[in-house]
Amino acid sequence: MSLTDAQRAVLEGWVRRRTTAQALAQRSRIVLECAKGHSIMEVSRQLRVAPDTVRTWRRRFLEHGLDGLSDEPRPGVPRKIADADVERVIVKTLEETPKNATHWSTRSMAAATGMSQSAISRIWRAFALAPHRTQTFKLSTDPLFIDKVRDVVGLYLDPPEKALVLCVDEKSQIQALDRSQPVLPMMPGVPERRSHDYVRAGTTTLFAALEVATGKVIGSCTTATGQPSSRSSSPGSTRRFRPTWAYLILDNYATHKTPAIKKWLLAHPRFHLHFTPTSSSWPNLVERWFAELTQKKLKRGVHRSVSDRLMPRPFGSAWGGAIS
After folding, report:
1. What pLDDT digit, counting tens, does each position of 150-160 carry?
2. In the chain, fewer beta carbons within 10 Å around the N or the C end?
3. Residue 170 Cα distances to 23, 53, 107, 153, angstroms
4. What's the order of all strands across the beta sheet hosting 198-211?
5. What pLDDT, on the 0 to 100 scale, is given for residue 240?
6. 192 close to 184: Cβ distance less than 8 angstroms
7. How far, in Å, CA of 202 to CA of 80, rounded?
8. What is the pLDDT confidence band of residue 308, given thresholds at 50, 70 and 90?
C-alpha cells in the first residue's frame, strides 16, 4: 500500500488538526500505519482497534482514495409530509380562521388538517408564522406629515447657532403602586415573584424637557394635568434658559395650543414651537427618555407614596441630571 505526497500531506493534516472529527482522524491513522508496511494485526494492536476496522478502512482507501474515508450518506426516515400538505397548512394559516376562535393554534390546525401537532409547529417555524402573536400600529393622517418630520429632524441635525433645542412632553397618570404583599427576591433557578394585585398610593404628572445638545433632562411634577400646570412647568421659562432663540418640540396636546399659551408666546417672541405630526409622537426624543424611565424605574418599582416614587434619581449623570 503506497501513498502519494499529496495524500500523505492531507492525511497528516487531518490527524494534527484539532477540529477534525475523531472518526476521520482515526481512519487517517489507520491508512498512514498501513502505508508504512505494517500488517493488519500490528496496526490493530498499535491503534487499539478491531482488525476488521483496519481491513474496512484499508479497503475503502484502496478503492476510493481519500473520499473513501468519509461516511457514506445515510438515507434516514423517508419524508412523510409532502409539499402539497405544507402548502395546505400555510394557505389555511394565512387565509382562514377556525370556527370557534380568532386565530389558529397548533392543536386546532392539527385537528383541521389531520397532521400531528409537532408537524404543524415545524412548518410554522420554517416559514416564520406565529398566529398567536399580534402587533399594533397607527398611521398618521396628518396632511403635513412629511413637512413636520423634516422640520423636527432638521432641528436635530442642524440646529440654529446659539439656539436651544428642547424636546418637551408630559407623562400623565404616573401611579405610585405598592404590592399587596412583600416582593419575594430572585434566587438561583427562581425569578423575582410579586403579587398580581397592588395598592394605589396616588398619581402624578411629569412635565419634562430634554436638551438635544447635552441630553440633560429637566422636569417638574404636578398632581393634575391641564393648562396652568403645563404652562407653569414649561421648560421655556425665562428663569431657567436665556439663549438667543429657543425651539421647543412638542406633540399636539391640547394644552400646547390654548389662547393662554399663544398669548405667552407673543410676549416671549424668542420661543418657537415645532409640533410633531398628528398621532406620531416618536420624533420627539423625550418620548424615548420616558420609555427608559418606565422600563428602569416605574414598571417594576414598588412605592408607597408619590414622593417615594419620584425622589430617586432615574439615571444619574448618564442622562445629564435628574428629575427635580
Report:
1. 999 999 999 88
2. C
3. 67, 77, 46, 20
4. 217-222, 198-211, 163-179, 245-250, 271-275
5. 54
6. yes
7. 61
8. low
Give the chain's length.
Answer: 324
CB 217 within 8 A of CB 297: no
Cell of 178: 405598592
Return the C-alpha cell found at 104: 389558529
- The answer to whether the beta carbons of residues 129 and 87 sit under 8 Å apart is no
Helices (H), 67-209: 83-95, 106-113, 117-126, 145-157
Angle between helices 51-64 and 40-47 (to 10 degrees): 120
Q: Which three cell numbers stand for residue 20?
A: 477534525
Radius of gyration of the chain (CA): 35
As given in the structure block, the three cell numbers for residue 57 are 478502512
Structure pTM?
0.59
Has residue 280 got a pLDDT over 80?
A: yes
Bridge partner residues of 175 (DSSP): 203
Say whether 67 sits in a helix, a strand or coil: helix
Cell of 70: 468519509
DSSP string, 207-244: EEEEETTT--EEEEEESS-SHHHHHHT-TT-TTT---S
C-alpha distances (whole Å) from 92 to each of 63, 124, 129, 146, 259 are 52, 12, 12, 39, 56
CA geometry: angle at 167 spanning 165 and 169, to 5°? 150
Cell of 269: 417672541
CA distance 142 to 148: 9
Q: β-strands 163-179, 245-250: how paired? A: parallel
Q: CA–CA separation, 110 vs 119, rounded Å?
A: 8
Contacts of 18 (CB under 8 A, 6+ apart): none
